[in-house]
Specification:
With about 230 residues, the chain is of the alpha/beta class. The protein has nine helices and eight strands. Bound molecules: adenosine monophosphate.
Length: about 230
């Protein structure tokens, strides 16, 4: 099963993506995580990407598109993949669609988490990262996933903030890109919705209300995926 997962920063897309990954045993490929891993390892890719990420800008397509198309060729993607954070603009959507068609790979499902911009912003600023596991959700502004003091609520690991999460200007820039229906991420979402409309509902489009808590959203999602 090949899946695209869209949602603004702060919508809980990473958390829900991890649930889908576990249920379907497919790799959860997060562009942002790949970049951050490269930054912490000090690779050339990380050095190139860091400035863009800190400013809340997109890493150029010339770097991001080949990186992801290459990642989809890895062995663990043979039985499917879940892409999260890519495509992030219309060009990336068109290039992905073209590459999949060239390889004869079907895109099965497109998930869109829908969330108001201001709610998403508050959630980002409250987000805390667990040192032990990137998929341990902690947020000081969400009761259901409040950290245990200053430690991870799941494993007790040390918590930190992402440098680009505490900078309001950078958050606004990221949301400007997401909610842009001309060339930004919403243009990419609409690209796949149009494709689906022209192609008898393929890929299947799943819209999710991102406002409820993690459990409610995941049960709605799994229900819509036929896994409840
Ligand atoms: P995220 O973890 O998804 O919030 O991504 C963090 C940052 O990585 C973004 O603000 C961008 O600077 C960069 N990034 C992530 N995905 C992409 C992408 N598909 N294209 C370009 N830059 C990206």
């Amino acid at each position: 099963m090949n899946v695209l997962f869209f949602g603004p920063n702060g919508s809980g897309k990473g958390t829900q993506g991890a649930i889908v990954k576990d249920k379907f045993h497919i790799p959860h490929i997060e562009t942002g995580v790949i970049f951050r891993e490269n930054i912490s390892k000090g690779t050339d890719l990380g050095k190139e990407a860091k400035g863009y990420i800190d400013r809340g800008e997109l890493v150029p397509d010339s770097i991001t598109i080949p990186m992801i198309l290459d990642r989809l060729k890895a062995d663990d993607c043979k039985n499917g993949w879940l892409l999260d954070g890519f495509p992030r603009n219309l060009t990336q959507a068109q290039e992905l669609d073209k590459a999949l068609k060239n390889e004869g790979i079907a895109l099965d499902i497109v998930i869109e988490m829908v969330l108001d911009r201001q709610i998403a912003k508050n959630r980002i600023m409250g987000r805390r990262l667990c040192a032990n596991d990137n998929n341990h959700p902690n947020n000081i502004y969400i009761d259901a996933i409040k950290p245990n003091g200053d430690k991870c609520r799941v494993c007790g690991g040390a918590l930190s903030t992402r440098s680009d999460d505490q900078d309001e200007e950078a958050i606004d820039k990221r949301h400007n890109i997401y909610y842009d229906t001309k060339t930004g991420t919403m243009a990419a979402v609409n690209y796949f919705k149009d494709l689906s409309a022209k192609n008898n509902g393929n890929p299947k489009i799943i819209e999710l209300d991102g406002r409820p808590g993690v459990k409610e959203v995941s049960s709605e999602l799994l229900g819509k995926l036929g896994q409840s």
